[in-house]
Automatic annotation (TrEMBL):
Domain of life: Eukaryota
An example Gene Ontology biological process: GPI anchor biosynthetic process
InterPro entries for the chain: Endo/exonu/phosph_ase_sf, Endo/exonuclease/phosphatase, GPI-anchor_lipid_remodeler
Pfam families for this protein: Exo_endo_phos
Protein's name in the database: Endonuclease/exonuclease/phosphatase domain-containing protein
Residues annotated as domain Endonuclease/exonuclease/phosphatase: 33-277
Coiled coil: none
Organism for this UniProt entry: Elysia crispata (lettuce slug)
GO cellular component: endoplasmic reticulum; membrane
GO MF annotations in UniProt: catalytic activity
Length: 368
């Protein structure tokens, strides 16, 4: 999907403060946007934002995985991000399942998609929570990823990070929320942070309200014995400040919704939260590299055509507002897609590092 130039990375950042501790922890969530649009350039910018914002723990959605046919070794995009973040020594990545290639795509690799977490603090344990629902409109496999992270040695102190990426289909979103709440109700976990891309719509807030509201929501979810969570962004709003949006369906009308959330349990105090990822900073730093990459892509598609390859040349679906031509996503809608060798021209700009903003929050854990 396309995103407005100004809503690039949109990393959601917040800061928390642990129990019995005066120090705070900065946590973020970010939809990595798989390998869309100039991944090598985007990953450098994404890593620079994480480093400059001093984010301790980051949850990622739409992480792609690729398996080498010769060695059988599977790698993910997070390995590439981690190379730029030497202080984030701990990582866990889990594929949810295979991705559907665009029809007639001839490229190989990046065949699975899932979730991942990077941390400066040691990871003690992780658990996969299956969210896949059968028979629904959204056939994409889904999971949640619980990662237990030790943020203090003495006394022993752990936060439980639950990374999610819910379905785009409303009914299945409700099922995803129910599955996560049911899992949490079966544990005695404390200091819980549920964060990620809830895919929630302005006219259908139920999948998030199920976590933060005790009243009936638009999701027919059975209430479980789970303490209510709080929305980190809402806790940080100043008087008369508008709730910031995090997602845009490019090229217009700009930011339209807030699917990216960080929800905290009662034992966590939100110190601050904000968004990161303005497109102008990305463009100013990587414009030349992006243009060069576009030229290389066009020449690469021309070479593929010359050598007899036939089919869809882009590494990803360009979405409802984009067309794949000569290996690039350009304006025009998917009805204007062309497979090589039939593409005659290309033109547009993809000057944005993601279709989601990065959400960051600073938190502390409430004194018990």
């Amino acid at each position: 999907m396309f995103r407005a130039q100004y809503c690039c990375v949109l990393l959601y950042i917040f800061t928390v403060k642990p129990v019995n501790s005066s120090s705070s922890i900065r946590i973020g969530t970010f939809n990595l946007w798989n390998v869309m649009f100039n991944w090598k350039e985007r990953l450098q910018y994404i890593a620079s934002v994480i480093k400059e914002q001093e984010i301790d723990i980051v949850a990622f959605q739409e992480v792609r995985f690729s398996t080498d046919e010769a060695t059988g070794l599977t790698t993910s995009q997070l390995e590439e991000v981690k190379k730029y973040l030497p202080n984030h020594k701990w990582m866990v990545v889990q594929p949810a399942g295979p991705v559907r290639k665009p029809e007639n795509a001839y490229w190989k690799g990046w065949t699975e998609e899932g979730l991942g977490v990077l941390s400066k603090f040691p990871m003690e344990h992780y658990t996969k929570i299956n969210l896949t629902t059968l028979g629904g409109k959204d056939a994409n496999p889904r999971l949640a990823l619980l990662v237990q992270i030790k943020v203090k040695q003495t006394p022993h102190q752990v936060i439980n990070v639950v990374a999610v990426h819910f379905s785009y289909e409303k009914h299945q979103q409700c099922q995803n929320a129910q599955h996560v709440l049911k899992f949490l109700s079966s544990t005695d976990l404390d200091n819980i942070i549920v964060l990620g891309d809830f895919n929630t719509y302005p006219d259908f807030p139920g999948p998030v309200e199920a976590f933060i509201s005790s009243v009936a929501t638009s999701c027919p979810i059975r209430q479980l014995h789970v303490p209510l969570f709080r929305d980190a962004i809402l806790e940080s709003l100043k008087p008369n400040q508008k709730v910031p949006l995090t997602f845009s369906n490019m090229p217009s009308p700009g930011l339209i919704s807030r699917p990216d959330r960080i929800l905290v349990s009662p034992s966590i105090q939100v110190v601050d939260s904000h968004l990161q990822g303005q497109g102008d900073l990305y463009v100013n730093s990587f414009y030349t590299a992006i243009v060069i990459k576009r030229i290389e892509t066009v020449f690469g598609s021309a070479f593929d055509s010359f050598t007899g390859k036939v089919g869809y040349s882009c590494l990803h679906d360009c979405g409802p507002h984009g067309s794949c031509r000569c290996g690039l996503c350009v304006k025009g809608g998917n009805k204007l897609n062309c497979n090589i060798p039939d593409c005659a021209e290309c033109g547009s700009e993809e000057l944005f590092p993601s279709d989601h903003m990065m959400v960051v929050a600073e938190i502390t854990l409430v004194q018990s």
